Amino acid sequence: MFMMIRNPRSIIIIFLYSILNVFIIIEAMKQKPDEFQTLKSPGTIAPEYTQIEDLNYFHLKADIPAMSLAAIKMRSLGEERAEFTEPKGVYNYQEKKQTMRYQAMEAVYKKAKDLLVLTGKVKVVSDEAEYEAERLKYYLKKDLILGYGGVTFTGIDLKSKDLIKINSETMRANPQNQLARFKGNVQGSMERKKKYEGKMTFSSQQLQLNGIESLAHLEGDVSMKRQNYLITAGKADIYLENYNKSLKYFVFNDDVKLTETLETPQGRTYRKAFSERLEGFGREQKMILSGAPKVEHGEDVVKGYRITVRENMDLIEVDDAISDVQVRRKDAEKKKENKLKE
After folding, report:
1. Is the separation of the CB atoms in 276 and 255 below 8 Å?
2. CB 184 within 8 A of CB 205
3. 5-14, 68-77, 114-123, 268-277, range with the lowest pLDDT
4. What per-residue string of b and e applies to 44-70 under the rule 16 or more CB within 10 Å gives b?
5. Cα 292 off chain centre by
6. Which positions ≥6 away from 201 have C-beta within 8 Å?
7. Exposed/middle/buried for residue 163 (C-beta within 10 Å: 0-12, 13-18, 19+)
8. Each residue of 46-78: pLDDT tens digit?
9. Of 236, 275, 272, which Cα lies nearest the Cα of 255?
10. How many other CB atoms are there within 10 angstroms of residue 260's CB atom?
11. Phi/psi class of residue 161: alpha, beta or left (left: φ > 0; alpha: ψ in -120 to 50)?
């Protein structure tokens, strides 16, 4: 028995529609990939930069140039971003009537964030300090500087007038608030205004410098060299303003070790002291050890509740609940004599 097709016209329409679909598919497969790029949204089109050479650039706030710089070349993307080659410029703190000068090999200024990114031989100079690094981010409105790679800080403490130099791997600074934090292989020095008062060198893993309080706080593998003394500890505070006062000039805590180099007719010797805490008094030139203190010099060992070391003197004072003991070397060829005072 055979099935009869009642509507031959429908068969013709279906057949023509199928041929049309096959033709469309074949032509689509022949299209080149480049032709599909025109279908992308306008947002994917590369931005167009405006390039200017040998320019002076100004960014105005209330018709006053808040930032100005000169560069050998600038590439600008409208009001969003500007790139500079070998920029040298100035930022004005209008509220405090102070300025910050800067220079680098390259710079990018992001206007929306008020962010200036400097790279390559970066130098930023304020009224009190100078900052150097391989890369530096300067958030102008926030008074925030972030430095990376080969960081160097040079400044004058406003109270003590000490010259301070610090090297580190990274830095976070607020110049207007006189705050700076340094991290990673921190090394530096502090030199008194009067040269004869000496110089101090130091190292640590972290250092926070507070210019307003005239205080330096060091943490992690702290080491300080001062005259013929080397002090190591877990952390330390240096009160820069107190050098010529009857106050603590520096304080060391956590596993303190003091090594003193002594020159004698018989040669160089070393006196070592150990404690949990050491307090140094600059004007009086003495250091007080507490927290199970102990002093070793050759075969001599002295212990007590508190031990005072007089700088540049072969003299220590030992305090405990019972007595005060003074140990003095009378002669390099004689034995030490211990005097006990009730």
Report:
1. yes
2. yes
3. 5-14
4. eeeeeeeeeeeeebebeeeeeebbebb
5. 35
6. 187, 188, 189, 224, 225, 226
7. middle
8. 556 677 777 676 666 666 556 677 888 888 776
9. 275
10. 22
11. left
